[in-house]
Design a protein that fits this description.
- The chain has about 210 residues and is mainly alpha-helical.
- It has two domains: about 60 residues, 434 Repressor (Amino-terminal Domain) (Orthogonal Bundle); about 120 residues, no CATH class.
- The protein has a two-stranded antiparallel sheet with strand order 1-2.
- The protein is elongated.
- The relative contact order is 0.13.
Length: about 210
């Protein structure tokens, strides 16, 4: 039995409504409905909670639904790539700060700067290209939302966004101060990198 049919049948067997299950999992009833219609899947942590709530084994929930297993595997791969991209972003921020302290006109410095810039852009663009596949959503939706339709930004995610906006505004304010601009740019890239590394905490179920 597919995951969607299995959780729907088990919920009815236990005499629970979608709203009651949603309240216990701290998500919306619409999310439960999407799972039961096969429109989306929960993450592994939520599957564990469902297993406890419905009193069925995780193995039972996973073994008969190939698409769900593939979805979880894709999620692991995407998380691993996000960590790598985050580390590269942070390293690029630190590298940019170091370059600002050196002779910007030297050929070696310029070569390293452009080399790191090209590598950084490739990593970012490649990440955006594969994101729709790993998240299992349409490319247009991915570019517009950047996350699964059944998720919303968490408090941590909102905090990171607000902090990044403040730093960008500060960069415009102190744009005539090269030292301050370099430090702020490094800080902005560090925050972006940390957001990638901890991206699974940036979003939560609706």
């Amino acid at each position: 039995m597919q995951f969607s049919n299995q959780i729907k049948a088990r919920r009815k067997q236990l005499g629970l409504t979608q709203a009651e299950v949603a309240n216990q999992l701290y998500i919306t009833r619409q999310t439960i409905s999407n799972w039961e219609q096969g429109k989306s899947y929960p993450d592994l942590n939520t599957i564990v909670k469902l297993s406890d709530l419905y009193q069925i084994s995780i193995d039972s929930l996973l073994k008969e639904d190939t698409e769900l297993r593939n979805y979880l595997e894709q999620g692991k791969a995407y998380n691993a790539f996000s960590v790598l991209r985050g580390l590269i972003t942070i390293l690029y921020g630190l590298f940019f700060l170091l370059i600002s302290r050196l002779n910007d006109n030297s050929p070696i410095t310029q070569f390293c700067l452009w080399g790191f810039t090209i590598i950084f852009l490739i990593v970012v663009l490649y990440g955006e290209h594969i994101k729709p596949f790993f998240l299992g959503i349409d490319k247009k939706v991915a570019w517009r939302l950047g996350h699964r339709p059944d998720q919303k930004r968490s408090l941590i995610g909102k905090s990171f966004t607000v902090l990044l906006v403040i730093i960008i505004i500060a960069m415009f304010v102190v744009r005539n101060n090269d030292n301050a601009s370099h430090y702020l740019l490094t800080l902005a890239l560090t925050i972006m990198g940390l957001a990638d590394i901890f991206q699974k905490y940036m979003w939560k179920q609706k």
